[in-house]
Write a structure and sequence with these properties.
With 220 residues, the chain is α/β, with parallel strands linked by helices. The chain has seven helices and nine strands; from the N terminus they run αβαββαβββαββαβαα. The protein has a three-stranded parallel sheet, sandwiched between helices. A two-stranded parallel sheet has the order 3-6. It is globular, with a radius of gyration of 18 Å.
Length: 220
């Protein structure tokens, strides 16, 4: 409802006030991709009636709303697709893999991995993501444009190994069944962002995790 009715309500406000408006869409619009890495031109492979469909499809519909309001009402809309942003101040219960892992580490609980840990994600540090969003807002681009870090595609099990190194702790891993329709691979093509926005991520995963862990030790 937030990604559909909520988006329409905000677009109506933007229309009334002549506001420029950006939506942070998601790599989940690509679903379980049959194309790797994922360019903006890829239409995705999304199950319409699965456990992840509510989120995936509502984000796709939100992008359609943004497109239609630009076409029909000349609203200055912009679309970026974020790939796994992480960093300090994340809610430890927000459901994302890095914050989940850090929460488990701080509470001395096993890290939960779905499947065998071979699924990949591309992690983009929050300051890089924000920089990309600001450059998008200051540009004439309408999108969609991928904002993510193609240099930080990691297997989940390799993320666990990196966290062991950073924390110096012996981490126990609990393996569960795969989540239905959970993407096995994730990596953005960022050619458009690099060319049109002059944007490129700078923070490597190990450095980003180190910064995040320093903050978490004070807060979780």
């Amino acid at each position: 409802m937030v990604n559909t009715v909520g988006v329409k309500n905000v677009l109506d406000l933007a229309k009334i006030h002549g506001a420029k408006i950006l939506i942070t869409s998601t790599s989940e619009v690509y679903g379980e991709p049959l194309v790797h890495p994922q360019p903006e031109e890829y239409y995705g492979n999304v199950n319409l009636v699965g456990v992840r469909s509510c989120y995936d499809e509502s984000k796709r519909m939100a992008e359609t709303f943004f497109y239609e309001y630009r076409k029909e009402f000349k609203v200055n809309t912009k679309i970026v697709r974020l790939f796994n942003t992480y960093g300090p101040y994340m809610d430890e219960k927000d459901g994302r893999v890095i914050s989940n892992f850090f929460s488990k580490i701080q509470h001395n609980e096993p890290l939960v991995v779905h499947g065998d840990g071979s699924s990949t994600r591309s992690f983009c540090y929050v300051s890089d993501t924000i920089d990309g969003i600001i450059k998008m807002m200051n540009s004439d681009e309408k999108g969609p444009i991928n904002i993510g870090n193609p240099y930080c595609e990691f297997k989940i099990i390799d993320l666990v190994k990196l966290l062991k190194k950073l924390t110096g702790k012996k981490l126990e891993v609990k393996y569960l069944d795969d989540t239905e329709n959970d993407p096995k691979i994730r990596k953005p093509v960022i050619d458009k962002a690099m060319k049109r926005l002059k944007w490129e991520p700078k923070i490597e995963l190990e450095e980003g995790l180190r910064r995040m862990y320093a903050h978490i030790k004070k807060t979780y």
